[in-house]
Write a structure and sequence with these properties.
Bound molecules: guanosine-5'-triphosphate, magnesium ion
Order of helices and strands: HEHEHEHEHHHHEHEEHHEHEHHHEH
CATH architecture of the largest domain: 3-Layer(aba) Sandwich
Number of strands: 10
Low-confidence stretches: 160-168
Distance between the termini: 26 Å
Helix content: 40-55%
Number of domains: 3
Radius of gyration: 24 Å
CATH superfamily of the largest domain: P-loop containing nucleotide triphosphate hydrolases
Shape: flat
Strand order of the largest sheet: 6-7-5-8-9-10
CATH topology of the largest domain: Rossmann fold
Largest sheet: 6 strands, mixed
Number of helices: 16
Mean pLDDT: 83
């Protein structure tokens, strides 16, 4: 980790993990209660990933957030009462807050206020491993904090055992720190540029081999699939953003070599500036010949997830790449009952069970994308053979584009990819 002045270091460190959190979300017009519930579950999962337990949820039906305090004054009063009464440590908002909203909310609530960006940035910061990912996250976090510095100061005052009242840090000190942060940002940018230059050279060295990149919503099983195919040991766990660094491995299937990369997962409402800061990590996606879009088919919102991923891919200019769709976690799905089973079931039972018609789904997606989706379970290898087959077929297509005379010069010098192993 980079060395900072003591003050800056404190500012940089994520606060000691608070134990309890309340969540706050606005419900937009036309948003069903079910959708809202699922979105809040995701927010609770994110909060949990940061180490806090969400104890209560506040929602308000409102088309646009209040300019000053995000929620209306009545709702804010309710939140405040709850937070004070139950001594909650933090309040998490499902959207981004403007610097003044954050300041006002902290003034009112007197506890740490997180918005979606800060929550995701802190998770990334905890998880980033490589110099590149760390530098990217540090930079994004400082840039995000700069206009919010006064608020962070109150956080720090509290951390130091203060009472939570404002005014601990003088304007002068804040100005000095802003200057410090600005120069830190300049340094980090330069460092990142240097790392990116090396990365670009490294990537250039990989030219001449098909590159396949795993993409998908967070927690769908990308790393699990990567481990299965490459026999690697990348951390895969039931947490959002287990992977922040990308990993590249060489794979040879049926004599055809290719590179497989695992990448950071996407999430809905991923702030654009965060995507920006991950641009170079996302080069793994942009420079791939083939994408494997992994979907957690057991998730009630999997269709939304597909949309979010496709939109994000469009945003980074990778929307048009050939893609294999993998419907993962098929073991957790309730498959359509057989005819006999159906006959022994009431219509109500049938509706309630929420069966998934895999065949219909398969047809619909094959029609849309031209490639039949693969249903599999990466964690126990169900259908991995089918996935391999489809993968080989699609890699071969890309390989043939690179080496039209492939059959004649079948042997490829793999020594150039030694660093991948
Ligand atoms: N039941 C079931 N669980 C799975 C399957 N594949 C992965 N998992 C689990 O899903 C969780 C997430 O898996 P990861 O491989 O870390 O997912 P990821 O897409 O890399 O997630 P991020 O890196 O956080 O974006 C882990 O607990 C896995 O064990 C599957 O086919 N079936
Ligand atoms: Mg992962």
């Amino acid at each position: 980790m980079t060395k900072y002045s003591k003050k800056l270091q404190k500012l940089h460190d994520t606060a000691p993990q608070p134990e309890t959190a309340v969540l706050v979300a606005l419900l937009r017009q036309g948003q069903s209660d079910q959708k809202a519930k699922e979105y809040l579950e995701e927010l609770a999962f994110l909060t949990e990933t940061l180490g806090a337990k969400s104890v209560y949820t506040f929602t308000q039906r409102m088309e646009r957030p209040d300019v000053k305090t995000f929620v209306g004054s009545g709702k804010l009063e309710e939140i405040k009462n709850y937070v004070t009464h139950f001594e909650v440590n933090m309040v998490v908002f499902d959207d981004d807050l403007s610097p003044s909203q954050m300041r006002n909310l902290e003034n009112e609530l007197k506890v740490k206020v997180y918005d979606r960006s800060l929550l995701i940035l802190d998770i990334f910061l905890n998880r980033a491993q490589s110099a590149q990912a760390k530098t990217q996250v540090e930079l994004a976090r400082f840039q995000y904090l700069l206009p919010r510095l006064t608020n962070m100061w109150t956080h720090l005052e509290r951390q130091r055992g203060g009472t939570g009242t404002r005014g601990g840090a003088g304007e002068k000190e804040i100005e000095t720190d802003k200057r410090d942060i600005r120069s830190k940002i300049t340094l980090l940018k330069a460092k990142l540029e240097e790392i990116e230059k090396q990365g670009a050279t490294q990537r250039k060295g990989r030219k001449g081999v098909v590159r396949v990149t795993l993409v998908g919503y967070t927690n769908v099983g990308k790393s699990t699939l990567m481990n299965l195919i490459t026999k690697s040991n990348i951390l895969a766990e039931n947490k959002l953003f287990a992977t922040v660094d990308s990993t590249v491995r060489k794979v040879v299937l049926n004599n055809i070599p290719f590179l497989l990369s695992d990448t950071v997962g996407f999430i809905r409402k991923l702030p654009t500036h965060l995507i920006e800061s991950f641009k170079s990590t996302l080069d793994e996606i942009r420079e791939a010949e083939l994408l494997v879009h992994v979907v957690d088919i057991s998730h009630p919102n999997f269709e939304d997830h597909i949309t979010v991923v496709n939109q994000t891919l469009d945003e980074i200019g990778a929307g048009e790449k050939p893609m294999i769709l993998v419907f993962n976690k098929v073991d957790l799905v309730k498959k359509m009952p057989t005819e006999v089973e159906r006959q022994n079931m009431s219509d109500f039972e049938f509706e309630e069970a929420n069966f998934l018609d895999l065949e219909k789904l398969s047809e619909a997606y094959a029609k849309k994308t031209g490639i039949e989706p693969v249903f599999m379970a990466a964690h126990d290898g169900t259908n991995v053979e089918l996935f391999r087959e489809v993968l080989i077929k699609e890699v071969k297509k890309q390989h043939m584009k690179m080496y039209p005379h492939y059959l004649e010069d079948e042997v490829i010098d793999m020594s150039q990819f030694k660093d991948m192993e």
